[in-house]
Write a structure and sequence with these properties.
The complex is a heterotrimer of chains A (251), B (325) and C (283). Chain B has 325 residues and is mainly α. Chain B has 13 helices and two strands. Chain C has a single domain, classed as MetI-like (MetI-like fold), CATH 1.10.3720.10. Classes of the chains: A alpha/beta (251), B mainly alpha (325), C mainly alpha (283).
Chain lengths: 251, 325, 283
C-alpha cells in the first residue's frame, strides 16, 4: 500500500482541550479511506488537519506533521492556499458561491489564474461538470445563478468546483448527510469512480455508508486512532474490542 | 398534625391582598401596553403634522418650486430660496460619505475577516467611545485642528495641483469650507458605518467562506468574490442610513463650514447646510414675518429627506439581518 | 516570487490596517486636542462657580450652571423616556413578538431614531409655542425625552431579544402571566442590558445641543424651577466659543473637556456596571 498522506504524531488542541492525541496514520493513494467513530471522537478534526482548515478557528493549536507526498504541509513558509488547492473539500452543507453555475466551477480557475476566459475555460467547466455528474442537468442554464439548484445538485456543483483545480486529494466531511437518498446515492457513485484518480478521505457516522465505500478504514475514539486497516479486515474481523463494540452499534 | 402544617404554611405565605387579580392585571397591562405601542407611530405623525402646520403660511404663498430651487435667501425682503442650503447639505454630506466609506468598509472587513479576538476587544469600546462624543466636541476639534489645517495646508496644496478642476478650486482664504465639515462629519459617521457593515458581514455563514477557502483562495479573494456580493445590498443600505444621519448633524458642521448662503461649487467653498440654517437663526424666528414658517419649513424638508432614506434603508437592513437570525 | 493573489491580498491588508489605524487614530487625535486645549484653562472655579458678572468678557466665574443644568436636563429627559421605553420594549418582547404590528412599531422606532436632533428641537419648540410655554427646563426635558425614547427603546429591544427563551418558557410553564414574567423574570435577567441602554441614552442627552437650543434656553443661574430656562454644557461650549475674547474661548475648551470627560465616564461606566451586574444573571 502506497501512502499518499502520512500523519505523524499529530496532536490538536482546542483551547487547551485535546482534540487529537498522538495520531500516526498512513492514508493510501487512490483509495477511499473512511474515518469513522462516535460523535466527538475527533474525526472531523483529523480531516480538517489535512487541508489546514483547523487553523481557521481561533484558539486551536497543532503539533506534529502531516506529509503529503513526503512534504510537511505545516512547514513554516508553506503557502496555505497551495495546500488547499491540492485538497478539495466536500462539506456537510454544500454552499454554492453567489455567482452563476458556470462561474462557480470556473472559480478555482479564476483565482489561481489557471486559464484565461474563453474556450479553454468552457471546455474545463464542461469536463468537470461531467465528472461530477451534473452536466446534463445544467448544460442549458450554465449562466443562471447557482442558488436555483436543489441541494443534491449543490453538492455535485461543489464537487465540480473542487475538481476544477485538479487536486490530488478529495476530503469529504459527511458529504451526503444533508442530502436526500437519491442525491446521496449519486454522490457515492461519483466517489467510487473518482477514486481511480484521486485519493479520497471521508468522514461519516453512517456505518452502512462506510461499508459501501471504504477501501481502508480508520476507527477513532476520544481523539485517538483505535484501529486502522483494510476495510474488509476491520469490518469483518476487528482487532480491537472497542471497534467491535462500535460496529455492533453499542455506542 | 395536618392542621398544624397547614397553619404553618399559611404563615410562610400570607394570602395575597391585591387590588386586582393576576389575570386582570395582565389584561389591563396588555391594554396599556398596546396603547403605549402606538406612541412611536403617533409621534412621527405628530411631528410631521406640526411642522407642516407651522410652515403652511410659506407653502401657501410660495410655490414649492420657488422655495426649493430659489437661490436667494433674504427673509426681510420675503425671499426664501432654499436651494443654497439644500445644495450645501448635499455637498457636505456627499463629500463626507466619499471620505468615510472606503476606510470604514476596509476597517469592517478587517475586523470581520482577519482580526483575532484581542483586536476586536480593543476596537469595540473604541468605536463606542468615538460614537458617544458629543457633536459640539467634534466641532471644537474641527475648529482647532481641521479648519486651520485646511486653510494652511490642504487648500493651497490641492488648489495648486488640482486647481484646474472646479471641484478643487479655492477662492476661500479661510479654512471654513465644505471639506472641513465633511472631514468632521466623516469621522462622526464612521463608527456607525463600521458597525452596520460588521453586522451585515456577520450574516454570511462561515460555510460559504470555507467553500471558497477550500479551493485555495486567499482570504481577500474570499471576501471579494464570495462574501461581498452577498452583503452588498446590506452595505449600501447601511451607507445610506449613515448618510441620512450625516444629513441631520448640526453643531459640529455648523462650527466649521462657514455658513455662507451660497451654493458651493468647490470643496473649499463655504456652505450653509439646512440644520445650520435652522440653528443659527432660531433667535430671529419670530421677529420677521414668515421667518418662522420658513425655518420650520427647512426642518420639514430635512425631516422628509431623512425619512425617505431612513425608511428605505431600514427596511432593507432589517430584511437582511433577519434572514440570518 | 509571490503569486498575484498574494500580492493583491498584501496590498489590501496594508490598506485595511491603515484604515484601522486611521479610525483609531482619529479618536486619539480628538481626545488629545480636547485635552491639550482644555486642560490649561481648567480650574476648580470652572467646576464650582456659576458665571459672575463679566464672565463672558473674561472675568470670573465658572460653568456650574451648565453642568447642573445639563444633569437636570438629561436626568429628567432620561427618566421621562424610561417611563415609555421600558414598557414599550417589554411589550415588544412579551406581548407582540413577531407580529406584524411589532414590526411596524419597530420600524417607527427606527425612523424616530434617525430623526436629527435639530428636528426634535424644532418640534419641541412648536409644541411649546402651542402650549404657551417659554424656553425652560421642562421644555428641554420633554424634547430630550423625545430624542432619547427611540435610542433607549431600540437598545433595550435588542438586549431583551437576547433573552433566553427557555427562561421565559419556564416562567410560563409554572403559570406566570405575561405581565408577571415581564416584570419579574425578564427585567431581572436583562437588568445589565437595560441599564446600559438607559446610560447610553443619558449620555446622548447630556451631549446634545441642537435639541435644547430652542427649548431649554440659557441662563447663568443654576436652575431652581422647571419653568425657568436652564443652561447646558454643549451650549456653554458653543456660546463661549462664539465670543471674541481668547480667555473666554479658552474656557470654552475647558468646558468641552469637562463635557467629554462626563460622557466618556458614562460610556465606560456603563460597561463596568453591566459587567458587574451580570453576576446576577444566568449565562
Amino acid at each position: 500500500m502506497e501512502a499518499h498522506i502520512q500523519i505523524r504524531n499529530l496532536e490538536a488542541y482546542y483551547r487547551e482541550m485535546p482534540a487529537l492525541k498522538n495520531v500516526t496514520l498512513d492514508i493510501p493513494r487512490q483509495q477511499i479511506t473512511v474515518i469513522m467513530g462516535p460523535s466527538g471522537c475527533g474525526k472531523t478534526t483529523l480531516l480538517k488537519s489535512l487541508n489546514r482548515f483547523l487553523e481557521l478557528t481561533d484558539g486551536t493549536r497543532l503539533r506534529g506533521e502531516v506529509l503529503i507526498d513526503g512534504a510537511d504541509i505545516y512547514a513554516p513558509g508553506i503557502d496555505v492556499t497551495e495546500i488547499r488547492k491540492k485538497t478539495g473539500l466536500l462539506a456537510q452543507r454544500p454552499f454554492p458561491l453567489p455567482m452563476s453555475i458556470y462561474d462557480n466551477v470556473a472559480y478555482g480557475l479564476r483565482i489561481h489564474s489557471l486559464c484565461s476566459r474563453g474556450q479553454e475555460t468552457d471546455k474545463r467547466v464542461k469536463h468537470y461538470l461531467e465528472m461530477a455528474g451534473l452536466w446534463d442537468e445544467v448544460k442549458d442554464r450554465l449562466h443562471d445563478p447557482a442558488s436555483g439548484l436543489s441541494i443534491g445538485q449543490h453538492q455535485r456543483l461543489c464537487l465540480a468546483r473542487g475538481l476544477a483545480v485538479e487536486p490530488e486529494v478529495l476530503l469529504g466531511d459527511e458529504p451526503t448527510s444533508a442530502l436526500d437518498p437519491i442525491s446521496a446515492q449519486h454522490i457515492e457513485k461519483r466517489l467510487l469512480e473518482l477514486k481511480k484518480e484521486y485519493t479520497i478521505v471521508l468522514v461519516t457516522h453512517v456505518l452502512r455508508q462506510a461499508r459501501r465505500l471504504a477501501d481502508y478504514v480508520v476507527f477513532m475514539y476520544m481523539g485517538e486512532v483505535v484501529e486502522c486497516g483494510l476495510a474488509h479486515q476491520v469490518f469483518n474481523a476487528p482487532a480491537q474490542e472497542r471497534t467491535r463494540a462500535y460496529l455492533e452499534g453499542q455506542f | 398534625m395536618a392542621k398544624n402544617i397547614s397553619a404553618n404554611l399559611t404563615e410562610i405565605r400570607p394570602p395575597r391582598k391585591s387590588f386586582l387579580g393576576r389575570r386582570e392585571s395582565d389584561r389591563l397591562a396588555s391594554r396599556l401596553f398596546l396603547f403605549l405601542s402606538t406612541v412611536p407611530l403617533f409621534l412621527i405623525i405628530v411631528i410631521l403634522a406640526a411642522l407642516i402646520y407651522r410652515s403652511w403660511p410659506i407653502i401657501r404663498t410660495h410655490s414649492i418650486w420657488d422655495l426649493l430651487a430659489g437661490q436667494v435667501w433674504k427673509p426681510i425682503q420675503g425671499l426664501f430660496g432654499f436651494y443654497p442650503f439644500i445644495s450645501g447639505t448635499i455637498w457636505v454630506t456627499v463629500v463626507a460619505m466619499i471620505l468615510a466609506i472606503p476606510p470604514c468598509l476596509l476597517t469592517a472587513i478587517y475586523l470581520v475577516e482577519y482580526a483575532h479576538t484581542p483586536l476586536k476587544t480593543v476596537m469595540k469600546p473604541l468605536l463606542d467611545l468615538l460614537a458617544s462624543i458629543p457633536s459640539v466636541v467634534y466641532g471644537v476639534w474641527g475648529l482647532v485642528a481641521i479648519v486651520p489645517w485646511v486653510q494652511s495646508s490642504l487648500s493651497p496644496f490641492l488648489s495648486r495641483w488640482l486647481g484646474f478642476i472646479p471641484l478643487f478650486r479655492s477662492d476661500n482664504p479661510t479654512g471654513f469650507s465644505v471639506i472641513s465639515g465633511s472631514i468632521v462629519l466623516a469621522v462622526m459617521v464612521a463608527p456607525f458605518i463600521i458597525a452596520v457593515t460588521y453586522e451585515v458581514m456577520h450574516t454570511v455563514p462561515e460555510g460559504l467562506r470555507h467553500a471558497s477557502l477550500a479551493i485555495g483562495a486567499t482570504r481577500w479573494q474570499t471576501v471579494r468574490y464570495a462574501v461581498l456580493p452577498q452583503v452588498l445590498p446590506g452595505i449600501v443600505a447601511g451607507v445610506v442610513l449613515g448618510g441620512s444621519r450625516a444629513l441631520g448633524e448640526t453643531m459640529a458642521v455648523l462650527m466649521v463650514v462657514g455658513n455662507v448662503a451660497k451654493s458651493p461649487t468647490s470643496i473649499f467653498d463655504p456652505a450653509y447646510p439646512l440644520p445650520a440654517l435652522i440653528a443659527n437663526n432660531y433667535g430671529e424666528m419670530l421677529s420677521i414675518p414668515m421667518y418662522d414658517a420658513a425655518l420650520l419649513g427647512a426642518a420639514l424638508v430635512l425631516m422628509l429627506m431623512v425619512l425617505m432614506f431612513n425608511v428605505a434603508s431600514t427596511l432593507v437592513l432589517r430584511h437582511i439581518l433577519r434572514r440570518s437570525a | 516570487m509571490m503569486k498575484r493573489r498574494h500580492v493583491e491580498e498584501a496590498f489590501f491588508k496594508i490598506l485595511m490596517i491603515g484604515s484601522l489605524a486611521l479610525v483609531a487614530g482619529s479618536l486619539g487625535f480628538i481626545l488629545l486636542t480636547v485635552i491639550i486645549k482644555g486642560l490649561p484653562a481648567l480650574n476648580l472655579a470652572m467646576l464650582t462657580q456659576t458665571p459672575k458678572g463679566g464672565f463672558y468678557l473674561g472675568k470670573e466665574g465658572g460653568i456650574l450652571n451648565a453642568i447642573i443644568g445639563s444633569l437636570y436636563l438629561a436626568l429628567g429627559g432620561t427618566l421621562l423616556a424610561l417611563v415609555f421605553s421600558l414598557p414599550l420594549a417589554l411589550y415588544l418582547q412579551a406581548y407582540a413578538r413577531r407580529t406584524g404590528w411589532a414590526d411596524i412599531v419597530r420600524l417607527a422606532l427606527d425612523v424616530l431614531w434617525g430623526i436629527p436632533s435639530i428636528v426634535y428641537g424644532a418640534f419641541g419648540f412648536t409644541l411649546m409655542l402651542a402650549l404657551g410655554m417659554r424656553a425652560s427646563l421642562l421644555g428641554g426635558i420633554i424634547t430630550l425625552a423625545f430624542l432619547e425614547l427611540p435610542i433607549m427603546t431600540r437598545s433595550m429591544d435588542e438586549v431583551i431579544r437576547m433573552m433566553p427563551h427557555e427562561m421565559e418558557q419556564a416562567a410560563y410553564a409554572v403559570g406566570a402571566t405575561r405581565l408577571e414574567t415581564a416584570l419579574k423574570v425578564v427585567t431581572r435577567q436583562m437588568l445589565p442590558g437595560i441599564l446600559t441602554a438607559v446610560l447610553l441614552a443619558f449620555g446622548r442627552g447630556i451631549g446634545d445641543a441642537a435639541s435644547v437650543l430652542f427649548t431649554a434656553g440659557y441662563t447663568d443661574r443654576i436652575p431652581t424651577s422647571l419653568m425657568r430656562p436652564a443652561a447646558s454644557l454643549p451650549l456653554a461650549v458653543f456660546f463661549q466659543l462664539g465670543t471674541p475674547f481668547p480667555e473666554v474661548q479658552k474656557r470654552a475648551y475647558a468646558s468641552a473637556l469637562i463635557l467629554t470627560v462626563i460622557v466618556l465616564a458614562i460610556s465606560l461606566g456603563s460597561r463596568w456596571i453591566a459587567g458587574r451586574l451580570s453576576r446576577y444573571t444566568i449565562r
